[in-house]
Amino acid sequence: MEPEHEPLCLKHNETSDQFTRGRRLLRVEGAKGAGVMKQILALVLLTLMSGGTAFSQQIKITNHTYLAASGKWKSDSAMTKPADPAAKVEIECDKKISLCAVAEGKNLQGEGNLFTRLDVSPVHYTILRWDSAGLVAQTSARDCVIGKLVIDFKTKSVTMTEAPKSKNSGEDNEFCSVFTKTVTSRLVRSNS
Questions:
Q1: CA 146 – CA 126 distance, rounded (Å)
Q2: How would you write the pLDDT of the chain (192 residues) with one tens digit per residue?
Q3: Where are the domains of the chain?
Q4: What's the Rg (C-alpha) of the chain?
Q5: Using an 8 Å Cβ cutoff, are 126 and 104 in contact?
Q6: Phi and psi for 43 in degrees, rounded to 5?
Q7: Is 59-188 CATH 2.60.120?
């Protein structure tokens, strides 16, 4: 004896086995598969977004001796110069020569690295420490301030701190007296 099938819907008042109880159960079980597919798609999307976040920081380390980073500075202080929205930052560090080069500007695209290019004027930082955790570099080339660059390899974060030079630095002139606070900036992706 066959199980009795009740029609769920009729087309034009005709009987049909299209929407029987057996087919309805099959469609409900199929819906579970669709739910699994949605979960898989959500995980793939989340993975891509996470990868996109790490990539968007744009930090690349080659052979544990060369680092390239790009983005723009975002300051933690209200006491900053007005930022040009089109200004970008390029950073390259070479462990072999113990130097980092930091260039800022609208058009930093070009051939070669920041150490050899003539079309940009980077500020050079001497690397004080480079180990498995990260690097610390410092410059005193800027007037009135000492710049410190800290790059954390684990979090892939780049921080720049600019602090006023001490009174004994020989730059205690009237111009330098306006630099009284330390300013910390973080490198963020260019489109944020």
A1: 12
A2: 555 555 554 455 555 555 555 554 444 444 455 565 565 555 444 343 333 333 345 799 999 999 999 999 998 875 555 556 668 899 999 999 999 999 888 777 777 777 776 777 889 999 999 999 999 999 977 778 899 999 999 999 999 999 988 776 665 567 777 778 899 999 998 775
A3: 1-56, 59-188
A4: 30
A5: no
A6: -65, -40
A7: no
